[in-house]
Amino acid sequence: MPCSAGRTRRFTLAPPIPPRRPVARSSGWKPKKELNMRRGTWILAMSGAMALNAGGAFAAEPDTDPAFAQVGVPTRYSRSATPPKPPTTSSTKNFYDELFGDDPLAAELPAAETPSKGTPPQTPVTTTRPASAPPTKRIPLDDPSKTPAPESDRVMHAAHSQAPGQPNQSFIQPVRATGTESASKATPRAASPRAGDQTHSTPSVIVDWVKQSDINVGQECQIDLVARNTGNAPASQVTLEATFPSSVRLTSAEPKPTASGDKLTWTFDSLPVGGEKRIAIKLIPSRRGDLGTSAEVRFSSQSGTVFKVEEPLLKIAVKGPREVLLGDPASQLITVSNPGTGTANNVKLEAVLSEGLEHPRGNRLTIEIGSISPGDSQTVRIGLSAVKGGEQSMQIAATSSSEASSVAVEKIQVIAPSLKVAVDGPGLRYKGRSATYVTSVTNDGTVANNNVRVTQHLPEGFQFVSADRGGKYDAAQRTIHWFLGRMEGGQTSQVSCELVANSLGDFGHQVVVVSDAGVRSEAKTDTTVKGVASLGTEIVDLDDPVEVGAETAWEVRVRNDGSKAATNIALICELPDEVELLSARGPTQAVAENRQVIYKALPQLAPGQQAIFRVHVKGAVEGTHRLRAKVTSDALEEPLLMEEATKFYADTKK
C-alpha cells in the first residue's frame, strides 16, 4: 500500500493476538501460517516478509522495538495507531538481560507518571545479588580502555559492602594494576528504571591499586591506593582498610593512617561525587614472586590485587680470541644480559686491562649501557691491541642501580717472539792490554724473529780493534753493529769483537738485540782496568871528574814508567865522608842528619812523570867517592838501592 513521503505507518491486528515469546530471526525465517487469515492477506504478508528478509532487513535492524516484534502475523489491516499491549514480564524470560545485564524493554517504555498527592508513594524494589554470586559482566568488548586483564595477570575481585542506612545494593568490580595507569575497571550502572520504579541516588566507591615504580627485591617502591566515588551521591564516613603480606616492610604512607595493627586504616569524612582519595604507600619487598595486597572500603568496595615482585639479574659473556700474536688486535665482544624478571636500570660496564693490553682510552674503561629489560641483552665491542707477551687479563664488572651486578675475568695469552742475549768478556784488564768480548743471541720462543740486529756499545776506556761476522764500527757513536737476519725458534748465534783497554777504571759493555717483531733484549758485562806503577831511578853526577874544593852535585832522578801513579815516594841520600854538603833541592823539603839527606815523601807521581832530587857537595879529599841513595814507595814491595861514584882530583903544579 503506498505511503506518503516522510511518514511511517504502523499496522496493528484487529483483534490483537496474545503475545508470544520472541524468536530470533535468521536468514531462513518464515512466518507460521496463522488461522483465520484470508488467502489474499496471507499471500501479501508472505511476499512482503520474503522481500524484507532477502534484503537483510531483519538482520540489520538493531533499533526494532522488541515489544512490537512479539506481535503475530496480521490477518486484517487497520489504520489504527494504537500499539498493542506489552507482554507480561512474568511470563516472558528476558535472555538479553541475562547475558548483558540490561533490559531494552525497560529502556524504551515511557516512565511512570508522577502519582497524585492522594496516592501514597510506593517502595522501590532494589535487586540484591549475594556476595558469593558471580560478578556481572559490564565491560563492553568494543571499548579499548576497558579491556579485561589478560590471563597472565593475577586479577583480584573487589567485594563491596554497603554502609548502614543505605540501599542494599552491591557491585563486584574487577581491578587490575597496569604500571602507573589505573587498573581497568567497569563502572557500575543502576538497574534501568521500569514503569512504577523510582530513581535512587546512591554513592558507589571503588578502590584501585596503582603501581608507581618498579617493584624489585630490597628496593623501596611506591604503590598508590586510590578510592573514587563513581556514584551519583556523596559518600560519607568512608573507611579504607589495607592488608599487606609479611614479605614486605612498610616505610611510609601519605596521608598517615588513622589506625594500624593487622590492617592499616584511613578514615575520610566525605567523598563527593567524582571525588578521589589517593594514598601513597611506600614499601620494600624482601622476596621474589607474587606480592598480594588487599584493600577494603567500608561502604562501597573492597579491592585486592597481586603485584609481581621482579628481580633483575645481570650476566656477562665475553667472546673473543684467547690467543693472539704480539702486536695483533685482541678485540673482545662483551654481552650483558638480564636473565631475571625485572628491568635492570642504569647498567654500567667497567673493564680493567692488564699492562699487556692497550686501548686508546687507557687501561680502565667505563661504558654506560642504560636499561636492560628481562630476557634482553646488550653487546659492547672493546677494541684492544696486544702490546706485551705472556698471559694478560681483562676484569669486567657490570653494575646497575637495581643492585644487580656481575663480574667476570678473562685471560688472553699473547704469543710473542722472544730473544735472549748474553755477553761474555774479561772482568779485569791492565791498561794497554787487549780483551775479547763474545755476544750470544738465542731465540728462546716458538715464533721466528726476522731481521735480528745486535749493537754493542764501547765504553770510553776501550779502543776498537776488530769484529767478526761483518761487524761494523761507528766511531762517532762508539758502537759495533751486526745483522743476524732471521732466527728460528731455539736458534743461537754468536758474534765477537777485540778491544784494547786504554784507561784505568771500571767500564760497562752493553749489548742490545732487537727484531722486527718489536722484541728487545739487553745484556751487560763490566771490566775493570788497572795499572802498575813502575818506578825507575838513576843517579847522575853533574861533574866527573871534579877538582877537590870545587862545587858539584849528584842528581837523583825517580821516573814512573808504569800505568798507575806511584804514591808516597821517599828518598834518602847517604854522603861519603870525603865530601862536604852544601845544599839539597827537590820536589819536597830535605833535612841533613848524620851524613844523610832525608827528603819528605812525595805524595804521588803520575805515570810518565819524574821527580829530580839534587844534592850539592864540595870534595875535600882527592879520590873516588860514592853517593848511595834509597827510594821507597807504596808501589814498591822493596826499597830501590843505588849509588854513583865520582872522582875528585887535586890541582897540583909541576
Automatic annotation (TrEMBL):
Polar residues bias spans: 163-172
One family name in Pfam for this protein: DUF11
Transmembrane intervals: none
InterPro entries the record matches: Chlamydia_OmcB, DUF11_rpt, Ig-like_fold, OmcB-like_DUF11
Low complexity bias (residue ranges): 102-113
Signal peptide: none
Region annotation Disordered: where it falls in the sequence: 1-35, 58-201
Name this protein carries in UniProt: DUF11 domain-containing protein
Taxonomic source organism: Schlesneria paludicola
